[in-house]
Design a protein that fits this description.
By secondary structure, the protein is of the alpha+beta class. It has helices spanning 23-31, 55-65, 68-77, 79-83, and strands spanning 2-9, 15-20, 44-52. 42% of the residues lie in helices and 27% in strands. A 3-stranded antiparallel sheet has the order 2-1-3.
Length: 84
């Protein structure tokens, strides 16, 4: 399985979108500071993920979620969570 995921920085209320084949390990890596792009915004919380059977599908979904239309989708999909 491959996963497209969204993390939220609890300190800065920022979002990060990525993909991986091991979701638990990847979230731990983000929180351990092993990713240069997310290290300054630790701690991260997993707020959303989708599972795909194919790596290319997960990458395509990640790219979509990073577009303007994808961000709109995310805001609608997580409307209740974001409004809290």
């Amino acid at each position: 399985m491959f996963y497209t995921y969204i993390l939220e920085s609890k300190r800065f209320k920022r979002f990060y979108i990525g993909y991986t084949d091991d979701l638990k390990r990847r979230v731990k890596e983000h929180n351990d500071g092993k990713s240069i792009s997310t290290k300054p915004y630790i701690p991260w919380v997993l707020i959303y993920y989708e599972a795909c059977l194919n790596k290319k599908d997960a990458i395509r979904r990640e790219k979509y979620l990073k577009t303007t239309q994808g961000r709109r989708f995310t805001k609608l999909r997580l409307r209740e969570y974001i409004s809290e």
